[in-house]
Amino acid sequence: xxxxxxxxxxxxxxxxxxxxxxxxxxxxxxxxxxxxxxxxxxxxxxxxxxxxxxxxxxxxxxxxxxxxxxxxxxxxxxxxxxxxxxxxxxxxxxxxxxxxxxxxxxxxxxxxxxxxxxxxxxxxxxxxxxxxxxxxxxxxxxxxxxxxxxxxxxxxxxxxxxxxxxxxxxxxxxxxxxxxxxxxxxxxxxxxxxxxxxxxxxxxxxxxxxxxxxxxxxxxxxxxxxxxxxxxxxxxxxxxxxxxxxxxxxxxxxxxxxxxxxxxxxxxxxxxxxxxxxxxxxxxxxxxxxxxxxxxxxxxxxxxxxxxxxxxxxxxxxxxxxxxxxxxxxxxxxxxxxxxxxxxxxxxxxxxxxxxxxxxxxxxxxxxx
Length: 369
Ligand code: CA
Known about the structure:
Radius of gyration: 22 Å
Structural class: alpha/beta
Strand order of the largest sheet: 7-6-8-5-9-11
Number of strands: 11
CATH class of the largest domain: Alpha Beta
Order of helices and strands: HHHHEHEHEHHEEEHEHEHEEHHEHHH
Helix content: 40-55%
CATH topology of the largest domain: D-Maltodextrin-Binding Protein, domain 2
CATH architecture of the largest domain: 3-Layer(aba) Sandwich
Strand content: 5-15%
Number of helices: 16
Bound molecules: calcium ion
Distance between the termini: 60 Å
Low-confidence stretches: 1-35
């Protein structure tokens, strides 16, 4: 039922109460809750329960949706492993055993090669640019088309901003140091490492500390200082490398079962969509506010050795990244269309950002030194 019909069936008094955002009891009195269908959803995530930033964002989303909808949608959030393991979130929502999920599209590259474009492309778009492409540059239509075949409706679900390159137990001085390296690094970044002789491992966040501690992996990337500090990688790895070439603006995602999404009236669809958009920005704001304090703590209190990847290594990673992406899209028509849209947007936004964001950051650095 659309909003106009919905309001007309309630009568003017009830409609006024509905528009005023009545409390649940008041709404029941005026017939809004009694007349309107209510929805109870499970939201499964790939993160540990209440994990800072990544896990608290879906919790805040659930609270916001419940308030905005005056209790018509109630969402309970589950951490990885509470109902389904981290890497079964996609299937659980696709099949409808959970109504919603929160995770990252590149975890599903085994489902479709185009999914990593909706998280991060090595040396690709930043968070600000990803949001521009997705919401005003044609990205969302391609995202919808890609996920429709899996019975899902996707939304951007937050961004970490530029990540860190990861935690290592030895210095990375030349390309030789990447050979034979077993590293947790998902998405296209993992394929790039493989090209350069390393072994990428895909593991959910909650398993990384033990894997690194026991030597199952030699190195790991995760997110950035705010999150990496909470997992305690500084206790088991000495060198912390930057920048996160493989995830320059990692975007997370909300996914909703398609039938569940399509069964919602338009006003509730608008609420869910607006809440997702708000949380998408909110997560980036949280990382922007928290990362530096955590980095100071890692370096000053825990004596972590901060290192920049050497330029020849970065150049080799860039070359391998271009090869990986070219080969990926050559083999899949849908991935090629996503890539062409992404690449066209990137070309334009990079040209403008050279004289805006980048010019300003360079200027700021030069006058502050
Ligand atoms: Ca990462």
